[in-house]
Amino acid sequence: MQSASTSSQSITELLLRNIEDAWDRKNLPKGVNERLSRARAAEPSSTERILLDHGGMATWVAYVRATQSKVHFKGQYDQKAIIAAFENLSKKDRILVAQKVAHGQPHSSVATIINKINQKEGVQRHPTTSTTANPLPPTASSAVPTIYPEFENALPQRLVGVFGEPIRRALRITLLDGEERAAVRMVFPVSGLVDCVMGLRIDESKVEDLAMSLFKVRVNSEGHTQRLTCPEGLSIDVTMKPDTDLILKGAQDGDISDVFGPEIYMALVERTVRKPELAPGGVTQGVSMALYSTRGAVVNLSLGIKGGVSIRHKIYP
C-alpha cells in the first residue's frame, strides 16, 4: 500500500502530465459542463471541489482528462490505482496536491478545451484569461461572486506602473498565440483565510537574485540539491525530490516594496490576516517563494480584496 507522500507525488505527476501534454481532441469531453456544475455544487471536502477551489480550472480539467478516458492504453491499471489512492488521501493532502498542480503551464490544446468549456457556459472573457466564472465587476469595492474567478497570462506591457521593475524583470515570459505573456496568475477564493492569491512564475535565471532581494538568502541549485546560504555564512543543503518544493518566507516590508512596487505592497498590507504581523519588527508572511528541483520558482502573494481587484483590472483586459 502506498504512503500518503508517495500517493501525493504520483497523482501530482499524473495531473501535471495531463495539463502540460498535448490533448488530441477537438470536441469537449462528453457531459463535461454538467460534471463541472456538479463539482461546484459538491461538498468542500469532495475531490473535484478541492481541485477547483485550490487548483483552478486547469487542475480540474486535468483530473477530468485522467478519469474520463475510455480508451485502453498501456499503464491504465496503474493510473486507476493512483487515482483511487488520491481519493483516499486526507483533505489537507488533496489540497496540497491541487496547489502544486496549479503551477503547471497548460499545453495550448488543453487551454483550448478550457476556453470551450467556459464559452459553453457563456463566460465572456479574454481568451488567455482562465476563469471559472464571470469576471469581477469593474468597481474595486464590489463583492466577490459566489463562483470565484482566476486570471492568467498577463500582457507584459500592462504590468508597467503596477509591478515594480525588479519583479517584472524576474517573471517568466512565454509565447501564447504568437504573443508574449507574463506568468502572472490571480485567484479569488470563495472562502478561507485569504481574499486574493497572486502567483508569479519566476524565470530560472532570476531565482538567485530574487531570493537574495526578498529573503537575504543565497540560493544555488546543484542537480536536485538546493544550497541556501544565510548572511551569517551558514549554509544548508536540501536534497529535493521530484515535484517537491522548499518554501522561503519572512520578507521585510522595505524589501517587499522595493521588489514589487508600492501598489502591490499596499494590497499586501490591507489583507485581513495581516494584523498579527504589524507588531514592531514583524515580518510579512503574505509573501512566499517556492523553490522546485526542476521547475524554477513560484512566488505567491496574499493580497487584500480591494487592492487585488484593482490590480486585476489593470493587468487583465
Overview of the structural elements:
The protein is built from eleven helices and ten strands. The chain has 317 residues and is α+β, with helices and mostly antiparallel strands. The chain folds into two domains: 117 residues, no CATH class; 166 residues, no CATH class. Strand 3 and strand 4 form a beta hairpin. Helix 2 packs antiparallel against helix 3 and helix 9 crosses helix 10. About 11% of the residues have low confidence.
Strand content: 15-25%
Task: Tell me about the largest β-sheet.
Answer: 7 strands, antiparallel
Q: Given the helix and strand composition, which structural class is it?
A: alpha+beta
Helix content: 40-55%
Q: Characteristics of this structure?
A:
alpha+beta; globular; 317 residues; 3-stranded antiparallel beta sheet; 10 strands; 2 domains
Q: Gist?
A:
With 317 residues, the chain is α+β, with helices and mostly antiparallel strands.
Q: Mind sketching the topology for me?
A:
Layout: H1 4-20, H2 32-41, H3 47-68, H4 76-87, H5 91-101, H6 108-120, E1 150-154, H7 165-170, E2 173-176, E3 179-187, E4 196-202, H8 207-215, E5 218-222, E6 225-229, E7 235-239, E8 245-251, H9 253-260, H10 262-269, E9 284-292, E10 297-303, H11 305-315
Antiparallel strand pairs: 1-3, 2-3, 3-4, 4-10, 5-6, 6-7, 8-9, 9-10
